[in-house]
Amino acid sequence: MTAEFPVARPRRLRRTAPLRRMVAGTRLHPAELILPLFVKEGITEPNPVGSMPGVFQHTRDSLRKAAHEAAETGVGGLILFGVPLHKDGRGSGADDPEGIVQLALADLAAEVGDALVLITDTCLDEYTDHGHCGLLTPTGEVDNDATLERYAAAAVAQARAGAQVIAPSGMMDGQVAAIRAALDADGFAEIPILAYSAKFASGFYGPFREAAECAPQFGDRNAYQQDPAGPVGESLREIRLDLAEGADAVMVKPALAYLDIIRQVRDIVDVPVAAYQVSGEYAMVEAAAANGWIDRDRVIMESLIAIRRAGADLILTYWATEIARRLA
Ligand code: PBG
């Protein structure tokens, strides 16, 4: 009788929770998670980000608390974004030693610098009054090469303040080489660069632009970030260029809509690959869950597993502390 039924029975390995746990091929570990945090100049109370329930623009004080919490749960690192009070055309706050990111970094370096990795996003959009990621030409285009000097200055200011990894996110050509040279010249040859190499012009960044107050005041980022429908192989080209310029780790961003890119990158590089589960990915899950339309905890874990399974070694996620706690 049994011969009429299948002999190979994949379900055998799924029958009990201990069996499924034992044979799991994809695991998450808190050390692979990186928590993005926002610190805002001139506020006295943490300011909730409306489109990202549970995420705040922090004061220097509440930032410390959030960083301690992340460290205690075993999160691998945090990535810091600054929101200055005053913005201008050249993004002066980005490399001001008294700028909010630099001051907050010094706090964190003193308090949690040994417990987790302090990463800084290096870009100009949070600091420019026009909201673009670089300096503008008189006709309003982003000036690639003039911007590189600003990135170099910002990266050095961040390293001096205590940043342990520099993460350039502006998608200018040559940004990794320019930052590498500046760090080396300033005595920071040992500081790694985590390059946002394959970063797409994405609608999923919407809520972040509220959190970091960095929406472009005109136009969009399509002339510097990758086109979601761009040339086949463009991401790999970006990745190879960044590695040739000295990147120590690379990133794909956003995550869930670009799992194919994460996999392609993982298959060709021999450095850690990070994926950024961005603000819109977070907001969609929180909003649907708040409506009772999906099982929040289940969907969060499923999305992180998918990103990991696609090949990401590191995941930037606003849920890092919560998930680290859940994994404990
Ligand atoms: C640029 C930057 C952005 C994000 C991280 N770094 C915004 C953008 O490119 O417009 C988005 C992150 C998110 O959406 O969570 N400094």
Automatic annotation (TrEMBL):
Q: Which residues bind Mg(2+)?
A: 238
GO MF terms listed in the record are: porphobilinogen synthase activity; zinc ion binding
Q: Which CDD domains match?
A: ALAD_PBGS
An example of a Gene Ontology cellular component annotation for this protein is: cytosol
Superkingdom, according to UniProt?
Bacteria
The pathway it acts in is: Porphyrin-containing compound metabolism; protoporphyrin-IX biosynthesis; coproporphyrinogen-III from 5-aminolevulinate: step 1/4
Q: Could you list the residue ranges that cross the membrane? A: none
Residues that hold 5-aminolevulinate 1 according to the record: 209, 221
Catalyzed chemical reaction(s): 2 5-aminolevulinate = porphobilinogen + 2 H2O + H(+)
What role does this protein play? Catalyzes an early step in the biosynthesis of tetrapyrroles. Binds two molecules of 5-aminolevulinate per subunit, each at a distinct site, and catalyzes their condensation to form porphobilinogen.
Q: Give the family, as the similarity comment puts it.
A: Belongs to the ALAD family.
The record's NCBIfam families line, in alphabetical order, gives: PRK09283.1 (NF006762)
Protein name per UniProt: Delta-aminolevulinic acid dehydratase
Q: Which organism is it from?
A: Acrocarpospora phusangensis
Gene field:
hemB
